[in-house]
Amino acid sequence: MERLSFVLVPYLPTSKSFTFSNYQFVPLNELSNYTSDAVLEVAYTIAGQYLKQINRPIQTATFVFPIDKQVGEYLNNGTIGTIAEVLKVLYLDGFCHIRPLQIATAENFEAFFYNISPNDFVISTSAGGIFPIIGYGSDVRDISYIMPPYVHLISGYFTPSELMAPALEHVVAKQSPSLIRALTFFFEAMRNDDRRTQLTKTTNLYLAFLMLMKASPDNKERELWWDNMAAISEPGLSKYPYPIIDTKTGKPKTYPKNLNIAQIWGEEFYKLRCKMLHGDPLTADDYFFTDISGNKLVSGSQPHFFLAANVFPALFFYKVEQEDPTFFESPSFVISDHENALSKNFTGLGSNSENYKLPFYINDPT
Fold it and tell me: What is the pTM of this model?
């Protein structure tokens, strides 16, 4: 029998199989319905590397394979790369509709790839991004994996949402470089790994926005923020005269700009970007959204990171529609200052309606 290929998502929070974008997702507790004998034994051995506290395999550890292939059937590098992209797409879905008290991080949607021979359990795999460690001729039953801590919930709750599935499957099918790359930076930013600093996480999140805005040396990046935030704002969102600071001199320019609350946030996030990338001194306060106009538009301390994470889906789905004007099944996210938006929170959008309200907690300056 030829070598087997497996794609395993050990911590995907699901307890039942589902299909998405021509791929099958099958948790361990259902795998016997899809394969048997030597292939099933190898799959159980691989999944056995990921245990609960009582040293039993996580039953919701999920195997992924194309719907036109069998579990364990050989997968080329192109297919494996596409599966990694599909999981990043699914993470965006999970971020948007999983309830705040149900925990899911980017790591929960991370895949591990195995090539293995049946019966002898010898693996051929690699670890390490910059300095790869290649494992050949090792028995998978004698290998341990050092992983960062995860919160794994026993009950599975993730399945692709009906609202977002058409748009997200469209993204996978189109293979738009800018959309896929934006999701890659978003995924890296949202990792829960505490070895990543606030600087690296925020930089990745900023780059995710740049991929969507398609910034280039020919564009004025600051104006791109104003234009894109206006595009995803609710019509009629109040505007305020806002001082525009020269990021090189730190002095106000000669004229204020009339901006809505979303554009003001984009302006301040852009200024944080300038400090991060130009090597300027950074303090903890720089990572919080502050209104410098004197109008006290913002209430409380609002971290740029969590604001950006919740604005990202709005811009992402807007760009899905922009890239293919013939596609009309994308959900619409709107930045709003309505009172009914103020009850939402920044840990997940958590709405079943077609128009999401992304809340900026603001004060009425009047």
Answer: 0.83
**Residue 65: what residue type?**
F
For residue 179, give the nearest of 86, 64, 113 by alpha carbon: 86
Within 13 Å and on the Cβ side, how many CA atoms surround 255?
3
Is residue 240 included in any domain, yes or no? yes
Q: Which of 127, 142, 157 is the last residue in one of the domains?
A: 142
User: Domain limits at 117?
Assistant: 4-142
Report d(CA 152, CA 293) in Å as an integer. Answer: 44
How far apart (Å, rounded) are the C-alpha atoms in residues 72 and 42? 9
The model's confidence at residue 363, banded by pLDDT at 50, 70 and 90, is very low
pLDDT of 8 over the 70 cut: yes
Whether residue 160 is contained in a domain is answered as no
Q: Give 244-295 pLDDT, tens digit per residue.
A: 988 888 888 878 899 988 899 999 999 999 999 888 888 888 998 888 876 6
**Long-range CB contacts (within 8 A, 24+) of 208-214:** 208/182, 208/183, 208/312, 209/182, 209/308, 209/312, 209/315, 211/178, 211/179, 211/181, 211/182, 211/185, 212/178, 212/179, 212/182, 212/315, 212/316, 212/319, 213/315, 214/178
Find, among 278, 284, 103, the residue nearest to 197 by Cα. Answer: 284
Residue 364, domain member (yes or no): no
**Total domains present in the chain:** 2
126 and 172 part of one domain:
no
Q: What is the mean pLDDT of residues 187-200?
A: 85
Q: Is residue 150 part of a domain?
A: no
Co-location of 137 and 178 in the same domain: no
